[in-house]
Design brief:
By secondary structure, this protein is mostly helical. It folds into two domains: 3-113, no CATH class; 124-403, no CATH class. Helices cover 67% and strands 4% of the residues. A hairpin with a 3-residue loop joins β1 (46-50) and β2. The protein is elongated and about 75 Å long.
Length: 441
């Protein structure tokens, strides 16, 4: 292959990898899919290197020739599951031979430069609906539900404003946590709601929804420790931003004479099964909608959120605490997501992230901060418990993927080649092409 043709192939693979990595795909997925693109374009022997902020592809045609190296930096983007899905199927079309390299480059350029059918105002409404659904999960009444809805809308507007001014994500999270707490302070101070913890918790879950713990755990399990460490640090900073914002809000409340900490419940009081199911469906479906997930994925995502909420509350009522029910529900989410993703033609990542949204530990984070603001050392235990839940969710989803993979056709043979379950993209070029060659005439 001529040098200019090689560079064209490497450039296409890097652009595909950039979009996948910036959308939350694991490093193993990104590495495999970049190599799939190269092999599909006739370029073999490519070595891929993936870090959190940089992608590198290396090709050496012969030992006597110098290696061709191409590098691309990765910038963060907002959650965009429509683009992720379109790139996923672009790679599948290229691997299967339905399109060639030039057509793939053209489609990718059009994909990146095109907008969305959903306006930004509609997306803001979707985040509000998610806040409403989370309020249902926490057993909020009509007034608190309205506050959760408008608080979520306000958080999205504030973060979008700060994002346009290129303020780092940490400060955007601080602003979101502060706004959620101030809304609760206002509702309590004006006697509109006696349950501010539910309003704050709804805002916390909203802010944690876009934090990529899935990619960090997947990278750690599939042999990419540096990328896993970088993702974990980013997720930790984002969560710390939420904690700082909520803490600032509680401090302001104390200065104003509003003692929200005194209302912190000693135990978790979850609502009825029906309300949990409805809240799980609305929050998961609304998150998928606000993240530009394809319309065909919205109903399955909502049903998956309902299943995860019911699995959690069922295990919780068996006396298993909070962490184990979260893990059990997450395993179910991973198992079901991997099974149905190909049927609705979306990457598994879209389903698993939305499916665990109802399980995010917003209430534990709030209780921990409220206890700390009252000089109660038990707040540290609550925050550690929230961290354990986040890890349990991510690890549980990945474990569900590992369980589901051998259950699919050819899974036991393919799993020996792979570093882990694919959350994005086809498995390998060889497997797809082999199925085509053996297709009965």
């Amino acid at each position: 292959m001529a040098t200019d043709e090689t560079y064209r192939t490497l450039d296409l693979a890097l652009r595909v990898g950039e979009l996948l990595l910036s959308s939350g795909a694991g490093a193993a997925d990104v590495s495999v899919q970049m190599q799939n693109v190269c092999i599909a374009c006739g370029l073999r022997g490519v070595s891929a290197s993936v870090t959190f902020t940089e992608l590198q592809l290396t090709h050496q045609q012969s030992p006597e020739d110098p290696a061709l190296i191409q590098v691309r930096n990765v910038t963060q983007r907002e959650i965009d599951y429509e683009d992720l899905t379109r790139v996923d199927w672009l790679v599948r079309d290229l691997v299967s031979g339905r399109i060639d390299r030039d057509e793939a480059r053209s489609q990718l350029a059009q994909l990146v430069s095109s907008g969305h059918d959903r306006s930004r105002r509609v997306i803001t409404f979707g985040w509000g609906a998610m806040g409403f659904g989370i309020g249902l999960l926490l057993g909020a009444g009509p007034t608190a539900l309205a506050a959760a809805f408008f608080g979520a809308v306000g958080i999205d507007l504030v973060q979008r404003y700060l994002g346009r001014r290129r303020l780092p994500m940490f400060y955007q999270q601080v602003a979101g946590g502060l706004l959620a707490t101030l809304v609760a302070v206002f509702m309590f101070a004006t006697d509109l709601s006696q349950h501010p913890s539910r309003i704050v918790s709804a805002g916390i879950i909203l802010l944690l929804a876009g934090v990529s713990y899935m990619g960090a755990v997947q990278d750690a399990l599939t042999g990419f420790p540096l990328t896993a460490a970088a993702r974990s640090l980013e997720a930790t900073l984002a969560t710390a931003g939420v904690i700082a914002g909520v803490s600032a809000g509680l401090t302001i409340a104390t200065a104003l004479g509003v003692k929200l900490s005194s209302l912190t419940p000693g135990t978790i009081a979850y609502p009825s099964w029906v309300q949990m199911a409805l809240g799980g469906a609305i929050s998961a479906g609304a998150f998928a909608f606000a993240s530009y997930a394809p319309r065909r994925a919205l109903l399955p995502t909502a049903l998956l959120g309902m299943v995860s909420a019911l699995a959690f509350i069922g295990a919780y009522h068996l006396g298993l605490g909070v962490s184990w029910p979260s893990s059990i529900a997450a395993v179910i989410v991973g198992l079901v997501s991997y099974t149905i993703a190909s049927r609705i033609r979306v990457p598994t990542l879209v389903l698993v992230v939305a499916g665990v949204v109802p399980l995010l530990p917003g209430l534990s984070v709030y209780r921990g901060l409220a206890h700390l603001s009252a000089n109660d050392a038990g707040g540290l235990v609550e925050l550690i418990n929230a961290s354990v839940i986040l890890l349990a969710l991510a690890a549980g989803v990945i474990f569900g993927e590992y369980i589901a993979q051998p259950l699919r056709r050819e899974g036991r043979r393919l799993e020996q080649r792979l570093s882990g379950p694919r959350l994005v993209g086809p498995l390998t070029v060889r497997s797809v092409r082999k199925r085509r060659h053996h297709k009965p005439e």
